[in-house]
Each structure stands twice: as structure tokens, then as C-alpha cells.
Model the fold of this input.
Amino acid sequence: MTDFLLRLFVKNSQNVEDSNVRAAYGSLSGLVGIVCNLLLFAGKLSVGLLAGSVAIVADAVNNLSDAASSIVTLVGFKMASKPADADHPFGHARMEYLSGLAVAVMILLIGVELAKGSVEKILHPEPVAFSTVLVVVLALSIGVKLWMSLFNRKLGRKISSKALEAAAADSRNDVIATAAVLAAAVIGKLTNLQIDGYAGLLVAAFILWSGIGLVKETVNPLLGENADPELRKILIDEVRSNDKVLGFHDLMVHDYGPGQRFASIHVEMDNREDVLVCHDIIDDIERRCLEEHHVHLVIHYDPVVTDDQELLHMRSLMQAALKEFDRRLSLHDFRMVRGPGHTNLIFDVMVPYGTLDQKFAIQDHLEEKLKEESHKYYLVITFDDASFNELEENAGQ
Done:
């Protein structure tokens, strides 16, 4: 069914990096969500009011909120597909994240209200009018929501959309919540236990849980979370693909929304190589990353000395001293500036996240090692957070 709908409503559905194609995916998901959720809302609300079940009414309102969420998703994808303009040179792709955040806020507000109603029903329980129609409507709801979960999950995976994957998780939670409501109705019929209010509270809890999860999913990229490890590996593999690249460090990826990713990295090459040749290599890597991976990569060229034996010896000595202090430490951008009275060793040390407070201890350790070698060397160290260098195990070696 999903493939049939894609063929019917989404042109060039395989070109998932195209903003218009992504918008078509979002529109399809939104329209399907609106139609299905409105039908479920109407059916559940009618049955819930006739049966006097706050849990079923709560589940119906949840479907109404899902319909509203689908509208926000549809509008969000449409706005995200707008091209860049003078005020937004990086495009509008983050609207996809903002629409997800708006949906999350709506879900949280509705969850709180439904929780209040359920608590009231627990304090003042009333019997639920059990009927075959009630069972049929809830069973159909479970089937529809299960299909919607699989539908949105498939769409979300095709275009790597957190918004659609969150919609899939929300539908999955609805399956569990509606099953709880149906179980409460059946148990009430068989045992006369009035657990409708408790089931309604469980539904509200699932709504809140879904909302909180969606908030985390959408806020993280807006706050500037680290790049996906798979994307980092792809970019690093592209850099490593040329044998003139000796090392690399400081890979930073900036996410302005799906299809709008910008990155920068420092690449080390032998200083004896022709600068124009190095420039051409860098241009080729940047162009390949844009054409094949849709990432605007900017590469900073770092020439490194490879034929100075004293420099190579001192770099090896400092690297060994760092590993002695902490196996996770490494260095890059190693330079040696000789003077008439002393020689400066200038380099960057990558420090694991959260351990920058150890930089003075690290420097003291390195200086002790230098004294064993010679008193003519002075250290000039810049300490970097290793968050941008987690995969660069051989960088600068």
C-alpha cells in the first residue's frame, strides 16, 4: 500500500534529497494522517459518549490531536521546501524540526488535560456501557493505527526524517493506548471493575511520553547536536580516499535542516607537494561531497613538515607522553619555531569531552618529559575539545 501511494502521489520518489520530493513525502503523510485520524475521532467520540467512557473519549481526543499534528507536519514540510532567500541564506529546511516541536507542545498540553479528566473519573467512577459496536470501533482503530505506524516509519526511513519517524512512534503508542482502553472495557464487562479512569490515565501517560520524546527528537538538532556518526564516517572516507592526505582533524558539521548541511575539516598534506595540486585535490573532495552526499564541505589546507628529523622526533616524543598520561589524548598541527635561545613547540591537544579541566596537569606532564630531553624547548599548546575528532584516530599521525 505504501509503495502504491508513493507511486500515485510522489513524483521521483527515489530522489529523497530534493526538497520538493521531501515536501511531497510530508504532504502524503500529513493527508493520510488527517483523513485517518478524523475518521477515528468521529467513531471513537460517538462510541465513547454513548458508552459513557472517559477513556474512549480521551482516546478520541488523542486522535483529534493527531489530526492537528498531521496538519502541522504537512504545513511544516511545505515551508521547509522553500528555497533560500536574502534573509535565510541557508534555506528553510529547519521548519521541519520546528513543526515537530509544535506538534510535541500540542501533544503535551492535550496529555495534561486528559490526565486531569482521568483522575476525576478515578475519584468518581461510573459504569461503561459495553457493546459490540464499542469493541469493533476500538479493534478497527488498533488496525488503522498499526498500519499508520508502519506507513510513517517507512516514509521516515526513506527520507531520514525525524518528524515522520516520530509520527510513526506516536501511532505505535496509540495502538498500545487503544488496546488498554479496549482491555478496560472488556474487564469492566466481565468483572464489574471500574478501571476506565485508570485506562484513561494510562492513555494520557502515553500521550505525554510521546510528546516528551518528540521534543527531544526535534530540539536536539535545533540546539546543534553532534553530526550523525554515519555521516561523519562518509565525509572522513571521502577525505581519506586520496593518498596525499596525511591526516585530518576538527570535522564540524552544521545542520540547517534535511538537505542543508554544511561542514568544515582541516586536512594535512606534505608541505613539499605543489600547492596548486593540493588545491585541486581539495576542490575535488569538496565537489564530490556536495554531489554525492549533499554536504557543503569546506576544507582547510594544513601543510605539514615531513622531512625534518628533529621535528618528527619531538612530535613522536610529545605524542608518546600524551598517551602515557591518557590513552585518549592526541595532537595535531605540530610545528617547531626555532630561535637563537630556545625552540617553541606549537601544537593542539585533543582532550576528551568534559576533561578540559585537566589541561594544566597535561601541560605539566609534557614539560617534565621535555626537561628529560632538553631545556631549550618551550611548549605553546592549544587544547581542543575532542567532540569534533571522535573518529579521527589516525589524524595528524
The longest strand covers residues 245-255. The chain has eleven helices and six strands. Residues 19-51 form the longest helix (33 residues). Confidence is low (pLDDT under 50) at residues 391-397.
